[in-house]
Amino acid sequence: MSERGPFSKRMLILIGAVAVGSLLLGIGLAVFGSKVSRAPISDANSFSESAVGHKAFVELLKKLKIPVVVSQYGSGKKAKDNAVLVLAEPRPFKKDVARGFQLLRDASTSIVILPKWGSRPMPKRKRWIGQAGLLPVKDVQWVAHNILNIDAEVSRSDSIGGFTVNRLGSKAGSVHLNVPQLITSDDLEPVLATANGMLIGKMKDLVDKDVYVLSDPDLIATHGLGKADNAVLAVAMIEHVRQAEATVIFDETIHGFLKKPSVWRALIEFPLVVASLQVLCTLLLLLWAGIGRFGSPQVPEPAIEPGKRFLIDNTAALLQFGGHTSHTLRRYYNSTVRDVARRLHAPELDDAGLEAWLERVGSSKGVKTSLSDVRRDINSVIASKRVQPRSVVLAANRLYHWKQEMLHGAASNPRSR
Fold first, then answer.
1. Cα(221)–Cα(230) distance, integer angstroms
2. CB 188 within 8 A of CB 222
3. Would the pLDDT of 130 be above 70?
4. Which residue has the higher pLDDT, 194 or 318?
5. What residue segments make up the domains of the chain, in order of their start?
6. Distance (Å, rounded) from C-alpha 111 to C-alpha 200?
7. 51 to 119, 121, 218, 364: CA distances (angstroms)
8. Are 172 and 194 contacting, i.e. CB atoms less than 8 angstroms apart?
9. 151-175: pLDDT as tens digits
10. Which pTM does this prediction carry?
11. Which of 22, 38, 67, 183 has its C-alpha lying 20 to 30 A from 31's C-alpha?
């Protein structure tokens, strides 16, 4: 039988299963979403957990209750008021450097961290670097020149030496850098510098902007953050640059992570993708429930079956339920005897005389079933304290066979059982 209505029991169970499944999926994504929502990245950026990555520094600032935003669109405009824009290690590509130059024009306060390392991920562990090497000094100078629009010279040495200029005070501490990278430029005012060049400088002659330069990214990279007082110095640099309660915005468009805001994209990304999946599954189930079946619909069975059989079965069930089987068997015996006598044109006699007359007629017809035996069987069933339905049926069946033999002859009727 075909199920009627758009919400059968099976359909409701299926909808419930989908709802529970998507809920569990949402909980799983909420717990592990940060681990599965992004492909493994080992480059120098805020998403990277590798040795050259900046994610550890971002997490450190968050732990220190410094508001941090990792931005993938409109970073310069976000940093216009009471915010610090950080361009950490722009890649030495024209489009990335050009984008960084434009971002500096939009922001009011910025920090440019020059690149230093080139790396490749491990084949089997994409979050880790497999190979790393220093970028050519000319590439770093090209980035500094084009993103800051200044003439600068980048140099590297075996040791950084002591600081000759220190505007960070005692927070500077001791620094440990692998092949220290320093910058020298007449367009920069030293904030933290040695005899060989500046580690941190500030651009001169800017009226409405503050642009700082960190020459060596090892200060914030994962592999250098835990060495000496590097972490303390990196945080001191941020605190020196930003005003009270200012947000630090790490731009990732210079690393190729440009993502324009879009409602449609948000619906297919975590966490809204969970709600989108639930809505989609619900719509598909509703569509499935509303699609008509192939072929003509099966006609449902009527509540009351046609014909006499249903009526007879129902009546018998009601009589048995009410405990009237004995009375019914007695009525069936009397009506059957009278019907046979009428059809055989029996004379007007009392019950005993009529039974004797029918016995004589049966004997002359060769009837093998005796009416007196049938009566004794019926009286025995009626007299029993607990009437069994099987006994009632057997007695009634024997009476029926007697009637058939009396009316149609013994040869035409099966032997009673």
1. 10
2. no
3. yes
4. 194
5. 38-267, 308-412
6. 10
7. 10, 11, 10, 119
8. no
9. 999 999 988 888 999 998 877 778 9
10. 0.59
11. 67
